[in-house]
């Protein structure tokens, strides 16, 4: 069967990007963020490729962690959102998962476990993002509650940065200062940095960094591509021409007739659409590469199909490959055109896309 759309994930590119993290933050331990199915790249193959090369993995929730444990991933594994119930706490213990605890109710669930429960936990502080985390004023109280639990293994303190992707704002510096101030006099390892902070804010590297996006070779910084930052895009998204139409001047293309041919021209129909995760908000004019030749999308993205301008590719025929993003066509550009970020495009690919894994560099 010929796949309609294929995402090829180059695991060597991910390894290269990991080296870049190590180079930028040589003194820090590395927690590779592989939540959301490794940002759409496939958590199990990515974890298998990185196991032994990173100090821990991080996922959002128990379900994501169980998939990895069932696949035989034995590395330290952190639940960034922690547990939601007593039952989840018991499962987390059984599977040797580390929990991020961000609110009093989670701490109470853990305190209600048997006294010898080997809870392994991080405490999250809210240093200014106002999403998850204990307020700085509660930290000493939390610390005292951890101290009385003899079986618990305290891993460290964590916070999340709201604006690390904005190098000109001083919000990140202020968050780092407030985080360190709240923890003054307290022992324990510290972790603040996501990808943007690994790249741009060395003062946040501390004991552990937690990169996600940059491992996949995409840039967290607006206006820059992963390649600009010395990263290698891990994913290539491709489809094929499934029809070639000879259209007349004035012919309208696709739903809503939003594009009219300015002259007689060939239009290619490509088998990818928003049901594959190629966003409907990707507009006319967005670059695509047909047979190695740069051209552009015309008309609206529909559920299963898009249309492309074949004027720059006179030799194009049914079956020819069409590159949607990847090497030579930065996902950052496609995301910017669609008014979103590479994170959303990568996470949004659906099961209809066929995934292929390569080790091109080896
Ligand atoms: C708590 C936490 N740490 C680290 C990351 C990794 O961020 P990035 O993918 O920007 O590196 C995330 C991602 O959202 C996160 O929620």
Describe the fold and architecture:
By secondary structure, the chain is α/β, with parallel strands linked by helices. It is 26% helix and 24% strand. It has two domains: 11-215, TIM Barrel (Alpha-Beta Barrel); 235-358, Lyase, Ornithine Decarboxylase, Chain A, domain 1 (Beta Barrel), CATH 2.40.37.10. The chain has helices at residues 11-24, 35-39, 43-50, 62-70, 86-94, 104-111, 139-147, 171-182, 195-200, 331-337, 342-347; strands spanning 5-10, 29-33, 56-59, 77-79, 98-101, 120-124, 153-158, 190-193, 208-209, 235-247, 252-253, 259-260, 265-270, 287-290, 293-298, 306-309, 321-325, 354-358. The chain has an eight-stranded parallel β-barrel. A six-stranded antiparallel β-barrel has the order 10-13-16-15-14-17. A two-stranded antiparallel ribbon has the order 11-12. Helix 4 links the parallel strand 3 (56-59) and strand 4. Helix 1 crosses helix 3 (43-50). It binds pyridoxal-5'-phosphate.
- Give the overall pLDDT as a whole number: 97
Poorly predicted ranges (pLDDT <50, ≥5 residues)? none
Structure ligands:
pyridoxal-5'-phosphate
If helices are DSSP runs of H or I spanning 4 or more residues, what is the number of helices?
11
Indicate the overall shape: elongated
Q: Quote the CATH topology of the largest domain.
A: TIM Barrel
End-to-end Cα distance: 28 Å
Query: What is the β-strand count?
Result: 18
Structural class: alpha/beta
Mind sketching the topology for me?
Layout (H helix, E strand, L loop, with lengths): L4 E6 H14 L4 E5 L1 H5 L3 H8 L5 E4 L2 H9 L6 E3 L6 H9 L3 E4 L2 H8 L8 E5 L14 H9 L5 E6 L12 H12 L7 E4 L1 H6 L7 E2 L25 E13 L4 E2 L5 E2 L4 E6 L16 E4 L2 E6 L7 E4 L11 E5 L5 H7 L4 H6 L6 E5 L4
Parallel strand pairs: 1-18, 2-3, 2-9, 3-4, 4-5, 5-6, 6-7, 7-8, 8-9
Antiparallel strand pairs: 1-10, 10-13, 10-17, 11-12, 13-16, 14-15, 14-17, 15-16
Helix pairs in contact: 1-3
């Amino acid at each position: 069967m010929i796949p309609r759309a294929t995402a090829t994930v180059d695991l060597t590119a991910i390894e290269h990007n990991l080296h870049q993290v190590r180079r930028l933050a040589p003194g820090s331990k590395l927690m590779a963020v592989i939540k959301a199915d490794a940002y759409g790249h496939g958590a199990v193959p990515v974890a298998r490729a990185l196991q032994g090369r990173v100090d821990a993995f991080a996922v959002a929730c128990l379900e994501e962690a169980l998939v990895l444990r069932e696949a035989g991933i034995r590395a330290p594994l952190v639940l960034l959102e922690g547990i939601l119930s007593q039952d989840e706490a018991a499962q987390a213990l059984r599977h040797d998962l580390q929990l991020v605890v961000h609110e009093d109710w989670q701490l109470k669930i853990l305190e209600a476990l048997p006294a010898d429960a080997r809870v392994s936990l991080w405490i999250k502080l809210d240093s200014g993002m106002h999403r998850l985390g204990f307020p700085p004023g509660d930290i000493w109280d939390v610390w005292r509650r951890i101290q009385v639990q003899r079986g618990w293994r305290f891993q460290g303190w964590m916070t999340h940065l709201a604006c690390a992707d904005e190098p000109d704002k001083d919000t990140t510096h202020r968050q780092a200062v407030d985080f360190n101030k709240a923890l003054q006099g307290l022992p324990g390892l510290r972790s603040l940095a996501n990808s943007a902070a690994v790249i741009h804010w060395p003062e946040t590297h501390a004991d552990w960094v937690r990169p996600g996006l940059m491992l996949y070779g995409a840039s967290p910084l607006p206006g820059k591509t992963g390649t600009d930052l010395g990263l290698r895009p891990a994913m290539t998204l491709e489809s094929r021409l499934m029809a070639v139409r000879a259209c007349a001047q004035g012919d309208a293309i696709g739903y809503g007739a939003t594009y009219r041919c300015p002259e007689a021209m060939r239009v290619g129909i490509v088998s990818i659409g928003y049901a594959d995760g190629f966003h409907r908000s990707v507009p006319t004019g967005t670059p695509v590469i047909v047979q190695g030749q740069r051209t552009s999308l015309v008309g609206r993205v529909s559920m299963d199909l898009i249309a492309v301008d074949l004027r720059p590719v006179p030799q194009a025929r049914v079956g020819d490959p069409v590159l949607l993003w990847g090497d030579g066509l930065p996902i950052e550009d496609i995301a910017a055109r669609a008014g979103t970020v590479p994170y959303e495009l990568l996470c949004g690919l659906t099961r209809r896309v066929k995934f292929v894994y390569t080790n091109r560099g080896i």
